[in-house]
Amino acid sequence: MTLTEFDLKISEDNPFAQIIGVDEAGRGPLAGPVTAAACYIPQELYSHPLMEKINDSKKLTPAKREKIFKELITLPVIWRTGYASAKEIDKHNILQATFIAMRRALAAFDGKNALILVDGNRLIPFIHHPQKAVIDGDAQSLCVAAASIIAKVSRDKFMEIIDGKYPLYDFAGHKGYGTKSHIASIKEYGPCPQHRMTFEPLLSMYNGLFPTGKENV
Fold first, then answer.
1. Phi, psi of 87 (to 5 degrees)
2. Ramachandran bin of 90, using left for φ above 0, alpha for ψ from -120 to 50, beta for the remaining angles
3. Quick one: which H or E segment has residue 114?
4. pLDDT digits (tens, 9 = 90+) for 139-192
């Protein structure tokens, strides 16, 4: 079954609902926000040539993701992103912060008759719309795969922007992931406000606290 066929089957079973795909990017990095996207693709676009190119964002090169994203947002799709900051991740934990980002992305669909397809095996708390958890949803569902691309491209762009404010860490290069060069930069310069202090190795390095006088603000 193709991604389009999967969504078409869901639509046939729920003929009066907008099928909204939700996915996230950035759960694993040591820095930056977790980003969620929600995407609705009208059925009349299912036959558009672009739909055949949409896939799980992890299976696409950055250049292909960027190209698909740029074309997708020219079409009459409805999409929104939501972010939860590094401080919110440290306060609530990464799972709850991911749900916060998802709820923020879904706020655009408040008041609409929607069915939410959530990538993974968990439903989003405090959402009034009916939901369906889809394991490997970004590899099965068209709208979830589209949301995965939107979330990933949007988060990468965010990290490229903050690279200008925090040039010591090369956020534009590694996007906040725990590369050897990133960890070396943290050890040399200390963390900045974009770092997740509850994530290892930051937690062990600083015991949950910034080293005195070394936080880069």
1. -65, -40
2. alpha
3. strand 114-119
4. 999 999 999 999 999 999 999 999 999 999 999 999 999 999 999 999 999 999
Written as one string, the DSSP assignment of 116-135 is EEEESS-PPTT--S-EEEET
The vertex-57 CA angle with 52 and 62, nearest 5°, equals 100
Distances from the Cα of 216 to the Cαs of 109, 186, 194, 210, in angstroms? 38, 10, 10, 10
Q: What is the mean pLDDT of residues 2-11?
A: 96
Query: Distance between CA atoms of 190 and 183, rounded to whole angstroms?
Result: 10
Cβ proximity of 56 and 144 under 8 Å: no
Tokens representing 91? 């306060």
Cis geometry, peptide bond prior to residue 33 (ω within 30 degrees of 0): no
CA dist., res. 19 & res. 140, Å (int): 14
The residue type of 209 is L
* 10-15 CB contacts, 8 Å cutoff, 24+ apart: 10/115, 10/117, 10/132, 10/141, 11/43, 14/115
Cα-Cα-Cα-Cα dihedral sign, residues 43, 140, 138, 55:
negative
Residue 174 backbone dihedrals phi, psi, to 5 degrees:
-100, -5
